[in-house]
Amino acid sequence: MVYPIKGKKRKRYSHFIKDGANFLITKKVDILNSLVEVCDLHASRLHMAYLYVKPLSPFSGNMMSELQNAQISFVELLISRFTKLQDTLSSKLFPLILDFLEAEEKTRSFLDILHQMEKVDLLKSTKDWLAMRTLRNHLTQEYPNKPDLVADNLNKAIVSSCELLEYWTSLKPKVAMIREKWIQKL
């Protein structure tokens, strides 16, 4: 808990308060920069996998058992990077962005975060994001006896991967603007 410093002591310790706030801002900016790099890596690998897997689609249940090892590797890369990019954005970058924007609530549920991101025009649709998250949850499950379900989820993942890459491409400059505003506060 932070205790406010009052009166003469406040003047004596004001440089510590300012330095502490600057330190926190600097740390948050460093974390933001790191998350942007991680998202870029996931997006780059997702794009590479998308370019390889897209020409193979649409997938069918029969086709799933006929994939070559290299094709399976790229399918798994697509699923893995789609999941990682979606998770990193949802659980790490979105809350940090809202911190930077000083959004009202400090303790937020996942749904609150999505609604707040939509409210500040950084997310087009909470409903679409939740649908993408549901797909992500399905993709992380193994269904060896249900090749038609796997094929259907993979076909959806190809479409959603493209949407997620487009979203990241549009969000990244906005994140850079938010970061610059915070750096100016130092």
Account of the 3D structure:
- With 186 residues, this protein is mainly alpha-helical.
- It has one domain (7-184).
- It has six helices and no strands.
- It has helices at 7-53, 61-65, 69-100, 110-119, 126-139, 147-184.
- The protein is elongated, with a radius of gyration of 21 Å.
- The model is unreliable at 1-5 and 9-17 (pLDDT under 50).
Task: Record the SSE blueprint.
Elements: H1 7-53, H2 61-65, H3 69-100, H4 110-119, H5 126-139, H6 147-184
Short description:
The chain has 186 residues and is mainly alpha-helical. It has six helices and no strands. The chain has one domain.
Distance between the termini: 23 Å
Query: What would the average pLDDT be, to the nearest integer?
Result: 88
- Portion in strands: under 5%
Q: Can you count the beta strands?
A: 0
- How many distinct folded domains? 1
User: Rough shape?
Assistant: elongated
Q: Please compute the radius of gyration using only Cα atoms.
A: 21 Å
Structural class: mainly alpha
Residue runs with pLDDT of under 50 for 5 or more positions = 1-5, 9-17
Q: What is the H-and-E element order?
A: HHHHHH
Biggest beta sheet attributes: none
Helix content, binned percent: over 70%
Q: Treating each run of at least 4 consecutive H or I residues as one helix, how many helices?
A: 6
